[in-house]
Design a protein that fits this description.
Length: about 140
């Protein structure tokens, strides 16, 4: 894709976001923010017994790139294993958004990815605690 095609791709996701809604019965919900600008993303996941993401949605407010990132990842991550999600990184975002955009706006380009990967970590941590008979960590006070 050339630069204009990447911009069109981002605008399409921003203007017609995929899976942008709250999920009431999510297995994990996690908010993330970019402190530099205040932009926000919340990721919702449902995870199957085979450790694959069976459903994903997001909500958020912020710049075109960060919110398009939420939509792109919501589309991409459905059906992925938790390990596959953890292997995503800057190369993934470069493929989806283009080298120039990721280079100049790296925090915007990675807000949704960082939040998604943190949600996977928290899901695993909660599951380990449940298996050990411990109560889930109350994160209500750190949600954004
Ligand atoms: Fe805030 Fe892009 S300007 S995430």
């Amino acid at each position: 894709m050339d630069r204009q095609a990447y911009i069109d791709h981002l605008l399409d996701h921003f203007q017609h976001p995929r899976s942008k809604h709250r999920m009431e019965d999510a297995d994990i919900q996690l908010g993330g923010g970019n402190p530099g600008c205040g932009d926000l993303i919340t990721i919702y996941l449902k995870v199957g017994d085979d450790d694959r993401i069976t459903d994903i949605s997001f909500e958020g407010e912020g710049c075109t790139i960060s919110q398009a990132g939420g939509s792109i990842l919501a589309e991409m991550a459905k059906g992925m294993s938790l390990d596959e999600v953890k292997e995503l990184g800057l190369p993934t975002m470069r493929e989806e958004m283009g080298e120039d955009i990721v280079k100049s706006r790296v925090r915007c380009a990675t807000l949704a990815l960082g939040t998604l990967q943190a949600a996977v970590d928290q899901f695993r941590s909660d599951r380990e605690r449940a298996r050990a008979g411990l109560p889930p960590v109350d994160r209500s006070s750190f949600q954004v």
